[in-house]
Amino acid sequence: MIADPAKIPVVIHNDHTELGVTVARRIAEVVRKKPSAVLGLPTGSTPKGIYRELIKLHGEGLDLSGVVTFNLDEYYPIAPDALQSYHRFMHMNLFRHVNIKPENIHIPRGDLPRDRVAAHCGEYEARIAAAGGLDLQILGIGRTGHIGFNEPGTPPDARTRLVRIHPFTRRDAAADFFGEENVPAEAITMGCATILAAREIILVAMGENKSGIVQRSVEGSETADIPASLLQRHPNATLHLDADSAAELLRVKTPWRVHENFVFAGHDGKDRETLRAVIWLAQHLNKPIQKLSQDDYIEGGLASLTLNHDTDAINRSCCKELMARVRDTDSLPSRERIVLFSPHPDDDVISTGGIFRKFVENGNDIHAAYQTSGNIAVFDHDVLRYIDFVEKYLSAQNLPVAEHTKLRERIEAFLSRKKPGDVDSAEVSFIKRFIRESEATSGATHVGLKREKCIFMNLPFYQTGAIEKDPPGERDIQQTLDLLKKFEPSRILVAGDLSDPHGTHRVCLWIVKQAVQRLPAERRPIVWLYRGAWQEWPLDQADILVPLTEYELLLKKEAIFKHQSQKDRAMFPGPDQREFWQRVDDRNTGTARRYYQLGLPYYHALEAFVEQRW
């Protein structure tokens, strides 16, 4: 038994909605107690849920008219009305919906001449001091552990200033700017000292991709190399996390090591906590499960598992459970109606290309429902390439080309004056959408699906033409519900990979869940959640493991190759810069390798799924 190494109080929430509600209510408590409260506010995808709930509370009577706000940061240089500007973000997501007075809103200016920036930063600090200091500072955390734009190495006594942005941070922001090359290299940010002077600090984090840096910030040493770890010195700082971002904390990953009274629900592989503990122990010791001894259990903090239970019996039970989760073609569903929901036009083959083909081989009536067009992820040069192809084809077939030539000239003129981040014209948007749809059809048919089984939903929330999407709403849910009622599937596959860099998977999962829960209980399909584009289900969580031969994995990668607009360099690759087929090869073979290292049968590759009932 070891002590919990957490050095900052942590609250773990069931999901991002609960997190947003809790933090917004804390803000409301501060404001009700002190109507002139001074709030430090962040931007980014994480605080959106907080702001939505704060707007709701305002609608229910929360008065924000006396509140003073100071934003953490802003890109430099950038115009306040630019698509990616934090000025624009804050007004769209909060200020225009509540009664905070314009004169009480403070955001660093990214549009000043360079020779005025230093003075502006000094004035910003002076205004915070004049307001009485920050009562409550809300923070996010970046992949490098940065808070605001205080990157690794920032001294704890730093104040508001102009800084260089870390390459990792610029890469993570590339999706917002339609390419890393368009992300500003600098930003104006509050300093660590400014942040730490706040009377209360709440840091929020969501998603698997934040779990590693959260663990280092909370359980590691306080160091300027991880600016978020400096919160360890603050007397009133709290982290609010969803389950995914908390996954690497010792109390979550191995709770039996830190909770003296931790009780396992069972002593065999059917108990998820027991299975997780045994897999952890085997991997920790680099031993097959069957070779784990009683001494191994005791030294690993799992002595309670062996009390009155035979160690070999526990080992056999866990191995039996893991082997039972392997489902090859002959033990997968056959002659069922199945709908595979794909957030983007390539997620179906990236994450389920193996089981997809096996479902077809088993005679299932399977439909691929592509929830969004994915059109913003197509490069402009691909549009010109396809237009050139069509013009050459028409000419070669002696078909009229005059109207097409006019279209080409309009599009070329538009693209020549288009700036990074500008919303595409309707004509360009349609072409990009059709590029993704044709690639999706090609990929799906490569694994055996009939062309007419491809459904392009083009859900309304996605149709803004910009990175910033509308909140999902009733139209999205109803369209999905209509599809479910039409096909009445016995089983659906849904993306449970919540680490995509722009949040579309999270939104699409929420929409499908809302739709399914409106069906009568007896008509709700079985749900299989898949991952694979950014993360993979670990062995202790996966309910279904589908083996792929070397040939089947090759077919899956060939289906991914059909998405030529995403090949070589995807517009929004996320933190992992490899191509998707490379990630798939590594993750599917890696899952099989970890399975084999537990002393279980060898497979070339494994796809993993989690089964749920909604």
Map the helices and strands.
Elements: E1 10-13, H1 16-33, E2 38-41, H2 48-59, E3 68-71, E4 73-76, H3 86-93, E5 105-106, H4 114-130, E6 136-139, E7 161-164, H5 167-172, E8 186-189, H6 192-196, E9 201-205, H7 211-219, E10 237-242, H8 250-253, H9 272-285, H10 294-299, H11 303-306, H12 311-324, E11 337-342, H13 347-361, E12 365-370, H14 380-396, H15 402-417, H16 426-446, E13 454-456, H17 474-487, E14 491-495, H18 504-516, E15 526-530, E16 544-548, H19 550-561, H20 580-597, E17 605-612
Parallel strand pairs: 1-10, 2-3, 2-6, 3-5, 6-9, 9-10, 11-12, 11-14, 12-13, 14-15
Antiparallel strand pairs: 4-8, 7-8, 15-17, 16-17
Helix pairs in contact: 1-2, 13-19, 14-15, 14-16, 16-19, 17-18, 19-20
In short:
This protein has about 625 residues and is an alpha/beta fold.
